[in-house]
Amino acid sequence: MSYEFEFGEVFAYWPELVAGAAHTLVLSTLAMAIGMVVAVLGALAKTSGPAWLRWLVDAYIELIRNTPFLIQIFVIFFGLPSIGLRLEPDSAALLALVVNVGAYGIEIIRAGIESIDGGQIEAGKSLGMKPLQIFRYVVLKPAIQAIYPSLTSQFILLMLNSSVCSAIAASELTAAAGDIQSRNFRSFEVYLVVTGIYFILSCLLWGAFAGIEHAFLRRPSRR
Amino acid sequence: MTTSDETAPIPHALGDVVITMRQVNKWYGSFHVLRDIDLSVRRGERIVICGPSGSGKSTLIRCLNQLEAHQSGDITVDGVALVPGLAGIESVRREIGMVFQRFNLFPHLTALENCTLAPMKVRGLSRAEAEAAARTYLERVHIPEQAGKYPVQLSGGQQQRVAIARSLCMNPKIMLFDEPTSALDPEMVNEVLDVMIELALSGMTMLVVTHEMGFARRVADRVVFMDQGEIVEQAPPAAFFGEPRNERTQRFLGQILPAGRSGATAG
Known about the structure:
The complex is a heterodimer.
Chain A: H1 8-11, H2 14-48, H3 51-65, H4 69-79, H5 89-114, H6 118-126, H7 131-161, H8 173-184, H9 187-217
Chain B: E1 17-28, E2 31-42, E3 46-50, H1 57-64, E4 72-77, E5 80-82, H2 89-93, E6 96-99, H3 111-121, H4 127-140, H5 156-168, E7 174-178, H6 186-201, E8 205-209, H7 213-219, E9 222-227, E10 230-235, H8 237-242, H9 247-256
Parallel strand pairs in B: 3-8, 3-9, 6-7, 7-8
Antiparallel strand pairs in B: 1-2, 1-4, 4-5, 9-10
Helix pairs in contact in B: 3-4, 3-5, 4-5, 5-6
InterPro entries (chain A): AA_ABC_transptr_permease_3TM (IPR010065), ArtM/GltK/GlnP/TcyL/YhdX-like (IPR043429), MetI-like (IPR000515), MetI-like_sf (IPR035906)
Family (chain A): Belongs to the binding-protein-dependent transport system permease family. HisMQ subfamily.
Keywords (chain A): Cell membrane, Membrane, Transmembrane, Transmembrane helix, Transport
């Protein structure tokens, strides 16, 4: 038990670590943004779409929530080329993350939509608003306000989950770490440092989410 | 109970027929909530609808903007025949304001934004136009200083007045009130009724579901009494309160009017 830590050999590769962290952040943020669109549209379909569409959305959600993320990535990256859709690792990773977070996001946003008092929807109708206008101007913001903590937790999970994308050699932090430790054989140090970096990334995201909430989603207080 | 009890009814002229209901029926499952409703309302007319809870009075006015669909009979509002699933129902609804028992303000918007949303999105007004109109109406309901507040920061009476202003901002031809004072603390009832009386004075066509009989005496051209989904009796307030003909009306009035104020002494 006389392991001697040599962090110097890890920090020598700092440009790769920074690039990896940046890729993780970009990949995750893009997946959140696109996944949010999927989630909102899916929730809209599930709450007010025709029966066949609701069934389709349900099937999608159940399929994604009951299978491992790694397998989802493999299907997209190794499977899709068989039907002629060949994706770069980074694109495949983004697609897999979007598909994954979209399924969880739909259920979260749906819960938010269902928390909206029907009276507000009736008020929107009585003012002559069309269904999509009611959804956009009356329902959506309070719905997101209501479920914002669950949504942001899901987004943090997404960022942490993106490390699984290293399995298809997408350029992100975990892949960069794997690369470094295969050259300097300092896996303990490398993964300790990467643990710290993921932690910092999480903190950055929490901070950003709090900022967004403060700027756009703050709920009025009684006084 | 209201300050307006002792005042004479407000006289005014009526226009042509703007709402017609003919043989309207509606069921919730097997529950027959509206039975053969016949009602016509003229422009500028003020109708108060009363009756025991579950008598179908809210359902009746909710059929007029099709928040509830009826299953048989004809409803015509401002020349448009309302059929269930009517495409373009929005263009009918925007001419009919509605005030709800529970206010139903949009909680994420300020009082001013509650008033400007529909005029901008539905009528296509610019923000400046919509805000100018909204401030005018907030002034009319006596709360211009609350424009920047959110619903949660307002009292029930203030919220209901914002809700009235929000409806008026759409320049409706008809206003529906669904028990507008039932969810209010007693001390806030009059501030809302006063606004409604002022609205009546301006010539607005109004259908009001309420138990505020003082308001009915003062403002109504006609009081409609409903029970078990039927219109049992309708008459001008003096006749309605003075000599109710139907036994069910008499019983209802006996229950809701304070002792000594029912029957011939009322009005």
